[in-house]
Specification:
disordered N terminus; alpha/beta; lyase; twelve-stranded mixed β-sheet; 349 residues; globular
Length: 349
């Protein structure tokens, strides 16, 4: 079934607006990641070019439209929703959307509302996030060295991020630190980063660099397989595999010496697709069924063509019917080009 075959007036006899989303491989989709903006106040070198061209504001969905789309997914069985970017907290009036989605938590229709942030705006928003029903967040932090932090983010100030983490914990938010493992940049300091995070009651998740979007450097220079990083860590720490999951792709180990958890996200060395329950929605209303594939569905057109959510729901169903088994991420050493042309900030981190 294609979009053109779907009646915009909801004339099909079956209303699928509340039917669960099950892909061709029997995976039930219960997790939606929403990029509310492609803009960011950092320019992390592995994620963006320094001089980015961002989407014109006229192409973005309004916050009210994003809320309607999120509500449609919640009606179809999404139980976890993560706001991402770019940097989600730089979107003007973003707390309107957070507060509206928080009502879904209080009504029992959503189990968790969370977000991934670079931490730069957390000191301003942490208390309000907690008040809206957010209980945990991910903060991206690759180094605690001030000079290296400025180098990797180009524009960022580490002190603001650390203040934001303090504010988040003071507001009662559970914080997890995400770090991209980069050979020759932060690999030597990961043990200390882990001790610091665990010492403050925060999990640490390491991520392999993902080949998405043209940037100003050769990713192969810094690509570090996490299998190698784990071997290094095991010379200092006792790591035990545990079944703990947060709904995302990370596999966790328990670190005996710190008592904390270490997550490993390995899109290249260990494909995590077999249990994928996620889809990604961009700030323009494009639905990507897979982070590492280009197939997508235009939900903006469906959203704006009718007020009937039944039609929107069937467009979503058609998209889910095309969700692939897995991604095609590779580090292309021969041609030095990304596996996916769009930047991570477009799809949502």
């Amino acid at each position: 079934m294609n979009n053109a075959a779907i009646d915009r007036n909801g004339a099909q006899p079956l209303d699928s607006s509340t039917t669960p989303m099950i892909d061709p491989f029997g995976r039930t989709i219960t997790y939606l990641r929403v990029s509310v903006t492609d803009r960011c106040d950092f320019r992390c070198s592995y994620c963006m070019a320094e001089h980015m061209t961002f989407l014109p504001k006229k192409d973005l969905l309004t916050l009210e439209e994003l809320h309607r789309l999120c509500s449609a997914f919640i009606a179809k069985g999404v139980r976890k929703l993560r706001l991402t970017g770019g940097e989600p907290l730089v979107r003007k009036n973003i707390m309107f959307l957070v507060r509206e989605l928080g009502k879904e938590i209080h009504a029992g229709r959503l189990d968790e509302l969370t977000l991934t942030t670079n931490g730069s705006q957390l000191s301003k928003f942490a208390a309000e996030l907690a008040d809206c029903g957010v209980r945990r967040i991910n903060v991206s932090l690759d180094t605690r060295d001030h000079d290296k932090f400025r180098q990797i983010t180009r524009w960022g100030e580490l002190s603001k991020v650390l203040e934001g983490i303090d504010a988040a914990q003071a507001a009662g938010l559970k914080v997890k630190i995400n770090a991209v493992a980069l050979k020759g940049f932060n690999d030597a300091e990961i043990p200390e980063l882990m001790r610091w995070a665990h010492g403050r009651g925060m999990d640490l998740t390491l991520i392999e660099t993902m080949p998405m979007g043209e940037v100003d450097e050769d990713r192969t220079d810094h690509y570090l397989p996490l299998s190698e990083m784990r071997e290094r860590l095991e010379t200092q720490f006792t790591l035990k595999d545990i079944p703990y999951r947060t709904g995302g792709p990370a596999r966790y180990v328990e670190v005996a010496e710190t008592g904390g958890r270490l997550g490993l996200i390995t899109p290249l060395t260990h494909n995590f697709c077999e249990s994928c329950n996620r889809v990604r929605l961009t700030c323009t209303g494009t639905l990507y069924m897979c982070l590492g594939q280009n197939d997508a569905a235009d939900l903006r057109a469906a959203l704006r063509s009718t007020d009937h959510d039944a039609y929107l729901s069937r467009v979503i169903d058609e998209a889910i019917s095309r969700k692939p088994k897995g991604h095609d991420f590779i580090i292309d050493r021969e041609h030095n080009r990304p596996a996916v042309a769009r930047h991570m900030s477009v799809t949502g981190g």
